[in-house]
Amino acid sequence: MKTVLHCALMLAVVLIGVPGYTAERLALYDDFNATQINPDKWFGSEYSPAFPSASTEAIRQLQDSRLRLGYRSYGPTDADSGRLRSELALLFRTPAAVTAIQAAVQVTDVGATGCPGNLERTVASANLGGRFFGTVPSTPGGDVTDTVALIGMFRGSESTAPPDELRARSLVFHCTNRPCTAGSELHRQDLGPVKRGEFVRLRVQWDRDHHQFIFQRDEAPEVLAPYAVSDTAPPGIAAKLLNAMQFVPNCPATPRPMAFIEARFDDVMVNESAAPRAER
Hints:
Strand 12 and strand 13 form a beta hairpin. The chain has a single domain, classed as Sandwich (Jelly Rolls), CATH 2.60.120. By secondary structure, it is mainly beta.
């Protein structure tokens, strides 16, 4: 499976784009054929704003020549409204250079349970993407206005689909504060069902010349997501990443709502100018 995917992905080092636009070629960034995560390419982080943290399990390691991310978190018990975002990530060491990310992604396990008294849903997801630009220059310690673009797979607590089914989706969000817990959604599109254990190839690309993001799942037609916000400033928080991200509602009832996802990432490709020189 890995060999076939790797060959297919290397064949993707061709010109990609939309009519009238030639994008930068993709090149291999990391195939994870190592015993440890390469510190020259990546660094890890976890975001869980509640104290004490709502997360209980966090796994970030290389296993069977793939990146394995596993994450479990619970909702706080002090309210019956609102929800908490938690995130386990592997971040690109030089994010400013990355304008396109592609990877083969497989979700091997997922779970999401909600709260009977809270209308907010629980969501467990695995994604690739990041903060691509800001609408105005940010100040140290101040709020930021970054625009985030993600493509990934998720399962929500409201789902009536079989337990082994997730949905793929693309998303663009304009942040109005530093942790990006407030803002407005600029784009969301469903990219179809995904079976647990199924490898899918996902791509997100910033087309700054045409003020849009380009998303693609496998060989499906590209999804264009134009935006109307200013893209002239660098992001206040420069971050491009692979992640496991949860949204879990606050809930005083028992059992506590929970989100869990375990995902494998493989054959990560980026725009050629951001790839390690040996891979170009």
